[in-house]
Automatic annotation (TrEMBL):
It is found in: Cytoplasm. Residues 8-119 form the Arf-GAP domain. The lineage of its organism: Eukaryota, Metazoa, Chordata, Craniata, Vertebrata. Residues 131-234, 256-362 form the PH domain. Its main location: cytoplasm. GO terms for molecular function: GTPase activator activity; phosphatidylinositol bisphosphate binding; phosphatidylinositol-3,4,5-trisphosphate binding; zinc ion binding. CDD domains: ArfGap_ADAP (cd08832), PH1_ADAP (cd13252), PH2_ADAP (cd01251). It comes from the Eukaryota. It comes from Takifugu rubripes. The gene is adap2. PANTHER family: ARF-GAP WITH DUAL PH DOMAIN-CONTAINING PROTEIN 1-LIKE PROTEIN, ARF-GAP WITH DUAL PH DOMAIN-CONTAINING PROTEIN 2. This is ArfGAP with dual PH domains 2.
């Protein structure tokens, strides 16, 4: 056996160990790359980010490894690295997963290894997401137009509010909106907003779910906003549910939507013309929302997704009476009040929607879910809703 073959075998054994068999940064399974500067095993995507930071990266399988580098990897590994660089990650701070956008993953890696934010050393002044107050300018999409304009945002954890203003000098202006942290959600939407740092902020306003679409030119700044919002949400949840454990509360801080995309929708009689609508499956609140366009500020309607034992179901269908349906792959969502019929353009999308909705159907309802159900579509509202 050659020296190269022996070292490759050692590395392949190391990467099978429990602490090394997932990417050190995003948790992707079976990493095939490693940083021999840090001594961690990485997936392909995270290795590319490390390379852009001038970290020394090699393929476990394809590159030649010198003996001293292999010995360093043996003495290091993901667990010992995490003990140093993730020693003091705030409980509310979002740890990106492999399917998260590149902005989140890159800033997580930079925060750990470049800015060393989580080593436990005292920071003067405190990091922005730890202060309980944050303000700054963000580009916000107009309510009716696609134009983005600069707006001043102010987050006050003590009051559990996020406000925004049309002008930077807030002392001379009333806020355009004061948003309660109670019902707020934030999720990265780079493709939807068509900006790599795009963030969608959703909250409950009047009788509708309202959405703000914002971005910042700086990746670090928008991720700081995201984690400052998460800090305020965590503080609110600790107040609202004082007996709740972190294991219970952390998944409730913010949620990514289970699925989004266009489908065609017909009316309650199933004879109306199909119309193209943008759908969002909010699994956290068990709601399927639909909009006229993907960047609308408010939804046209909301459908609550309960459980099968409560009379909810989803399946494929072939509608026969509805008019002008251009797409051919049908879905029926059954509720105790109405049968909804949607059409997908591709069979793949049909199956993905059915699988996503079924995932919500199979999850038991909580007391909070019954509260979330209020304000969603009923049988009377169905006949009055805009298609």
């Amino acid at each position: 056996m050659t020296n190269h073959e022996r070292n490759k075998k050692i590395l392949l054994e190391l990467v099978k160990q429990p602490h090394n068999n997932r990417c050190a940064d995003c948790g992707a399974a079976d990493p095939e790359w490693a940083s021999y500067k840090l001594g961690v095993f990485l997936c392909l995507n995270c290795s590319g980010i490390h390379r852009s930071l001038s970290s020394r990266v090699k393929s476990i399988k394809l590159d030649f490894w010198e003996d001293e580098l292999v010995e360093f990897m043996k003495a290091s590994g993901n667990a010992s690295n995490r003990a140093v660089f993730e020693k003091a990650v705030p409980v509310f701070y979002y740890r990106p997963q492999e399917n998260d956008c590149s902005t989140l993953r890159e800033q997580w890696i930079r925060a750990k290894y470049e800015r060393m934010e989580f080593t436990g050393e005292t920071k003067f002044p405190p990091l922005p997401y730890n202060t309980g107050f944050y303000e700054g300018m963000l580009w916000k999409k107009g309510k009716e137009k696609m134009q983005f304009l600069k707006r001043k945002f102010v987050l006050v954890e003590r009051e559990f509010t996020l406000s925004y203003y049309n002008k930077e000098n807030v002392s001379r202006e009333c806020p355009k909106a004061v948003i309660s942290i109670k019902d707020l959600n934030a999720t990265f939407q780079p493709e939807k907003i068509d900006h790599p740092h795009g963030l969608q902020i959703t909250y409950q306003g009047d009788d509708h779910t309202r959405s703000l679409y914002v971005y910042h030119e700086s990746a670090q700044e928008i991720v700081t906003w995201y984690n400052a919002i998460r800090a305020a949400r965590y503080a609110y949840l600790k107040t609202a549910y004082p007996t709740g454990t972190d294991e219970e509360l952390i998944p409730k801080i913010t949620t990514n939507y289970l699925k989004e995309g266009y489908m065609e929708k017909t009316g309650p009689l199933h004879k109306e013309a199909f119309k193209r609508r943008w759908f969002v499956l909010d699994s956290g609140n068990r709601k399927l929302l639909y909009f006229k366009h993907h960047l609308d500020a408010a939804e046209l309607g909301v459908i609550f997704i309960g459980t099968e034992e409560k009379g909810y179901s989803v399946k494929e269908c072939e509608p026969k009476n509805a008019r002008r349906n251009k797409w051919k792959y049908g879905i029926t969502v059954e509720t105790p009040w109405r049968q909804f019929v949607f059409m997908c353009e591709q069979e793949k999308e049909q199956k993905e929607w059915i699988q996503a909705i079924a995932q919500v159907l199979q999850r038991p309802m909580t007391p909070q879910d019954y509260t979330s159900k209020q304000g969603t579509t009923t049988d009377i509202e169905c006949a009055m809703k805009v298609l």
